[in-house]
Amino acid sequence: MLKKTGVIFGLICGFILINSKLQAQSYYQAAKTTVGMPFFIAEKQNKKIYVIGTMHAGRKDDFPFKDKIQMAMSITEKLLFEISLKDFFESPSLYEKYQCNNCLINSSSPKNYALFKKHFGRNKKSWDIIQRMPDWLAYRYLSSQSALKFDLSVFYGVELNLMRHVIQSPKKVPIDGLEVMAERERMPMRITGDLLTAKLENYFDAIGQDLNGQHFQELYNLWRKGDVEKLYHLQLAQQMSYADPYLDSLGERYIRGVLDERNHNMFRQIMSTIARHKTITVAVGAAHLGGEAGILSLLHKQGYQIHQH
Fold this sequence. Notes:
This protein is α/β, with parallel strands linked by helices and 309 residues long. 54% of the residues lie in helices and 11% in strands.
């Protein structure tokens, strides 16, 4: 179970959603009618970047890919994921290496340990797993369990199905990563102390009110509509609410690290790659596309004309 949940941690890091009525940003031309996963074409002179907003887990009826995505894959020179194929398949073992005897009790405050025990203590199998994790990893494991209960499968994640498409295609497109997995995994370690307490209390409260299913359903619906702006802003609002009243310190640094800092790091790699090619495809989590520091906005600032399809 831990290996299965490890692969989808990127999906559920804070993806609990609330209602919003945000308008599409001016840095891209939104599609008049959008059905299916987010797909954008960014063009500048003789350069073209296809951008796919992914979910790392999904459902069978999300596929096959729409025709324009299949067309893009037939002519792209390189496919960029958040992480490389090697890191993608080795990622579960990265979580296992952080485990140790009595990790949870040694890393948690008494209050946080009590919160974990209250939720997991009656399930001996889960509690045995959780006790071997440091507190930040235990929180991510907890979050991943909600995604599994929502009936999302890694087997139907966008990245995995893009890999299958490439393997089955006559054209073998090279695949590379925008981030190094080991570096990315240092970010969750910023969730410490009071910030983690706030997150846990809010999360367990949502479980008590049976809100998690509703939240994941809304996330999934937004993704199917291609609404990356609302998805980004709702994720940000949720993370901000968890951080209160610690927003000016730990909360702010963690939120900006997960969202803006990673976007800028990935964008530098995108620019480096397109400098050597004419056509590439970028497939990253949909929440990384929206917002003023999102991938689409950063492309626009570099002079790319962007249209949603």
